[in-house]
């Protein structure tokens, strides 16, 4: 991934604030980098997970175009149709790779049965093709695993730690790998997946 200054320079050149061989003025560079920071910070509000950065190099052109469109008004420039298309396509690609569905909660009557109702769950059909998380294992970007009744997607490739992921956050650190929790696939019972504890073991923590 290019540096913020390199992206800012390319964005300014796309709206012809500077020529292809010119050096960007310090004030323009500061303004463009600040605009880039603000743009990236706004992505979380658009539904992107907090683990978007560092982005893969395949998104660079789209980010440059998006920043150029954002800067155009400041410099009194009219974005070309091609620039607008590049920015739109770039944003679509980033959303497709990093969009996170907001976590939903259901009424306990809809999500749980029996005497144990301490938690609320999001249910989904079990993906039989997803492997169970393993320690000290290298996981690739976009790889899915299940662990303790939860489904996770790898958002940063790396090697897993000794203990598996248990959080339902959008950024779950696991050794050098990072996961994004996606959903509950099942309610784990005693002796379930990976020897997990079941509802009876958590009875004392129940909230009525």
SSE topology:
Blueprint: H1 4-14, H2 26-42, H3 60-72, H4 81-98, H5 108-111, E1 131-132, E2 138-139, E3 144-147, E4 150-156, E5 158-159, E6 172-174, E7 177-184
Parallel strand pairs: 1-3
Antiparallel strand pairs: 2-5, 3-4, 4-7, 6-7
Protein described:
The protein is an alpha+beta fold. The chain has two domains: 4-98, P22 tail accessory factor (Gp4) (Hypothetical protein yqbg), CATH 1.10.3230; 108-205, no CATH class. It is 30% helix and 13% strand. The chain is built from five helices and seven strands. A five-stranded mixed β-sheet has the order 1-3-4-7-6, with no helix packed on it. It has a two-stranded antiparallel ribbon with strand order 2-5. Strand 3 and strand 4 form a beta hairpin. Helix 1 crosses helix 2. The radius of gyration is 22 Å and the shape is elongated. The termini are far apart. Mean pLDDT is 75; it is low at 110-127 and 187-208.
Short structural description:
The protein has helices spanning 4-14, 26-42, 60-72, 81-98, 108-111, and strands at 131-132, 138-139, 144-147, 150-156, 158-159, 172-174, 177-184. The protein is of the alpha+beta class.
Query: How large, in whole angstroms, is the Cα Rg?
Result: 22 Å
Q: Main beta sheet, described? A: 5 strands, mixed
Please tally the β strands and state the result.
7
The side-by-side strand order for the widest beta sheet comes to: 1-3-4-7-6
* Order of secondary-structure elements: HHHHHEEEEEEE
- Give the termini separation: 49 Å
Return the average pLDDT rounded to an integer: 75
Q: Helices and strands: which structural class?
A: alpha+beta
